[in-house]
Amino acid sequence: xRLLSTLRLIEDPSTLTQARYEDRWFLPALESARxxxxxxxxxxxxxxLESEVLPLADFVDPTMGWSDLVKGQLLxxxxxxxxxxxxxxxxxxIIAEHLRSFLDRVDAEARSAH
Length: 114
Prior knowledge:
Largest sheet: 2 strands, parallel
Strand order of the largest sheet: 1-2
Oligomer: single chain
Number of strands: 2
Helix content: 25-40%
């Protein structure tokens, strides 16, 4: 709810009054969209980023369910720190290292298409 409030999709839940109760329609709609979404199969390469703190892949499918949805190359990288922090500080630099070759390839393909 805090994220929805930050994005200004609903009022701040702590100040929700009866007059603003109509904003609550969005939460069930969001949950329904999440529950009914079917990700399409990707024909391109996919990079899967996972926190190395309590990695799920050690307990479940190492591809975390993505193998059936990716027809290209599926690269799985673990990043330091908890999930909510892995895109900050050291993790951001590591992500950049992992993505650099892919982004360079996309740039080269875009240049050759012109």
